[in-house]
Design goal:
By secondary structure, the chain is α/β, with parallel strands linked by helices. It folds into three domains: 135 residues, Response regulator (Rossmann fold), CATH 3.40.50.2300; 162 residues, P-loop containing nucleotide triphosphate hydrolases (Rossmann fold, 3-Layer(aba) Sandwich); 72 residues, Helicase, Ruva Protein, domain 3. It contains 16 helices and 14 strands. Strands 2-1-3-4-5 form a five-stranded parallel β-sheet, with helices on both faces. The chain has a five-stranded parallel β-sheet with strand order 7-8-11-6-12. A two-stranded antiparallel sheet has the order 9-10. β1, α1 and β2 form a beta-alpha-beta unit. α13 packs across α15.
Length: 386
């Protein structure tokens, strides 16, 4: 069932349209002039609006223009009702964004067909908008205008078009993977694969197989030949996340792969050439890990051609308003709820917090506030839920 609005100064036309559309199962409301209709459309969400063109006061074209200029009502399809002498005006209205027009006297079949098509068109537009939001949400985003994040963005813009290796450092939750994706998406390899490996999540005994692949029978469970991440990333980018947690044995093989641009699968003696750009990230102090004997110094220098240090959120608190706005819009879209706003007190309260979990922690807090608090989130909400 759709919700429809009919705007017409002629009672007979209002009543006729209402009866026809109500019989089709729709909820129908009426307005007797353009001013009343516009006020109703701005307060209530309608799926379709019918409006006469010629009315005293605010006419149908003026209502159409006002609705199209308002972001909240711009997508509502509007069908104009006109006499034969106003067809030229109605055609002009189509160019201004009207969905269609009906000629007086009204034809039952034309009304039903127009209503059906207009509602389907609205649904299709909404689905397309949601898909675009989902696609956009999947893409890498670096939100902020602070000096610290601007510097990171400048380095990305310079290094992305090159083939230089990059070592991305920073605490957990700062967005190191976003930096890696932005480098790949703005490189000459953007059409190639972007393969990610979380070195901390793979057991040390399996990391070599994961990176370099293996041959059937090379170890228990190797039931068939398998290409590793280096081969999968051929022609593209390999992102080694948390590389500070990689075993020394695997580090040695990674160093050889970087030096010779070739890898050897576990259980094979055949070298395979690979064309891969390697980006690495870690939350550890690799210089300290080298001192402890946990990380190879020669591998560090191979990876650390261009260092990018991603700042902690506590070092860029001025970006919190933009981050909150971005996460709020994203989360409300995902949850299918009306957009919520954060007042100045709420923003200042968030800026006063310590963000040990960085951007990831902030997003979780924003999601919690959106779910638990009212339509306008206040300082008191932050103190209660954050």
């Amino acid at each position: 069932m759709a919700k429809l609005l009919i705007i017409d100064d002629e009672r007979s036309i209002r009543n006729t349209l209402k009866e026809i559309l109500a019989d089709e199962g729709h909820e129908v409301e009426v307005a007797e002039n353009g001013t009343q209709g516009l006020e109703m459309a701005q307060k209530t969400t309608y799926d379709l609006i019918y409006s006469d063109i010629k009315m005293p006061g605010l006419d149908g074209l003026e209502v159409l223009k006002a609705l199209k200029e308002n972001e909240d009502t711009a997508d509502i399809p509007m069908v104009l009702i006109t006499g034969h002498g106003d067809v030229e005006t109605a055609v002009q209205a189509l160019k201004s964004g009207a969905y269609d027009f009906l000629l007086k006297p009204l034809d039952l079949n034309r009304i039903l067909i127009t209503t059906k098509n207009a509602l389907e068109s609205k649904d299709l537009k909404q689905e397309t908008k949601q898909l675009r939001k989902k696609v956009a949400a999947k893409g890498p985003q670096m939100i902020g205008e602070s000096a610290a994040i601007t510097r990171v963005r400048e380095i990305i813009n310079k290094v992305a078009p090159t083939e230089a290796r990059v070592l991305i450092t920073g605490p957990n939750g700062t967005g190191k993977e976003v930096v890696a994706h932005l480098i790949h998406e703005n490189s000459a390899r953007a059409n190639g694969p972007m393969v990610e490996v979380n070195c901390a999540a793979i057991p040390s005994e399996l990391i070599e197989s994961e990176l370099f692949g293996h041959m059937k029978g090379s170890f228990t469970g190797a039931v068939k030949d398998r290409a590793g991440k280096f081969e999968q990333a051929d022609g593209g980018t390999l992102f080694l996340d948390e590389i500070g947690d990689m075993s020394l044995a695997a580090q040695t093989k990674v160093l050889r792969a970087l030096q010779e641009s070739e890898i050897t699968r576990v259980g094979s003696d055949k070298a395979i050439k690979v064309n891969v750009r390697v980006l690495a990230a870690t939350n550890k102090d690799l210089a300290a890990e080298i001192e402890k004997g946990n990380f190879r110094e020669d591998l560090f220098h191979r990876l650390n051609v261009i260092p990018i240090a991603v700042p902690a959120l506590n070092d860029r608190l001025e970006d919190i308003p933009l981050l909150v706005e971005y996460f709020s819009e994203q989360i409300c879209g995902e949850q299918g709820i009306a957009k919520k706003s954060f007042d100045e007190g709420a923003i200042k309260a968030l800026q006063a917090k310590q963000w040990t979990g960085n951007i990831r922690q902030l997003r979780n807090v924003v999601e919690r506030l959106i779910i638990l608090a009212g339509p306008k989130i206040t300082k008191e909400d932050v103190e209660l839920y954050a």
